[in-house]
Fold this sequence. Notes:
CATH superfamily of the largest domain: Tyrosine recombinase, N-terminal domain
Helix content: 40-55%
Order of helices and strands: EEEHHHHHHHHEEEEE
Pfam family, one: Phage_int_SAM_3
Radius of gyration: 30 Å
Keywords: DNA recombination, DNA-binding
InterPro entries: CB, DNA_brk_join_enz, Integrase-like_cat_sf, Integrase_recombinase_N, Integrase_SAM-like_N
Shape: elongated
Number of strands: 8
Low-confidence stretches: 281-285
Oligomer: single chain
Organism: Agromyces soli
Largest sheet: 3 strands, antiparallel
Structural class: alpha+beta
CATH architecture of the largest domain: Orthogonal Bundle
Distance between the termini: 95 Å
CATH class of the largest domain: Mainly Alpha
Protein name: Core-binding (CB) domain-containing protein
CATH topology of the largest domain: DNA polymerase, domain 1
Amino acid sequence: xxxxxxxxxxxxDVGFLTxxxxxxxxxxxxxxxxxxxxxxxxxxxxxxxxxxxxxxxLADRILFQPSSSALTPDSPFPDLVAxxxxxxALENRLSKRTLxxxxxxxxxxxxxxxxxxxxxxxxxxRCDHFLKQLAKQSxxxxxxxxxxxxxxxxxAVRHEVLPRNPMDHVSRLHCPASTPxxxxxxxxxxxxxxIAFWEAGRSISGPKPDGQLGAIVEAMLGTSARIGEVLAIRxxxxxxxxxxxxxxxxxxxxxxxxxxxxxxxxxxxxxxRRTCRSRRSxxxx
Length: 285
């Protein structure tokens, strides 16, 4: 009869040898996920203990398929982080600002708690406890840490280094109740007065005025745009000739680490590109 090939992820009969020091070696052939059959062995004081150690080794090989990366379940978490950031850079689908934010968050929020662990040691309970402890300090920090930790461990799952993402089973973060805080007309006029006083050169503190701050604040009040969006407004985005004057918000001003401030013409989402129309002539509140 012809020899029957093992199915991928299975092993053959277990054999035993006695080493010169008297310990028992259990051996079996295992067909890995690349199709190659390899001899796997483990040692124990008795046949039973050697067989248990061998089956534990084989169970690990069944759970974790080899991937194209150098990562394994026993790789340190910092190795995964380096590989994850490199993978994002190769994809080139995130803005440089977002990539820098992810890198900062995982280095400052996550790495202190997971830097000394291997991937195998990161489970649901550990991740859940970490997020709850961080949420006691700051809900926003816990939320940002959850995002980057889920993405990094998700890469390990996609590359078949881990069988599942422990972040999929952690408890939800509950945002503490808060009351929106808006400026009153009196507060807005107080800000305008302070700006006018500073731009008139009567303030002895702060940088020298350049005449732009007042216009920037008025544009933010009139359009509800963020300061980065207001700073990115160009002359061609302003229409004052039509019956209803309008301003188109089409980009934002960004400052990358170590680089000069530039204008990013593409917004984060399609909703960020919008037109703000004036219903009346500008008036003081």
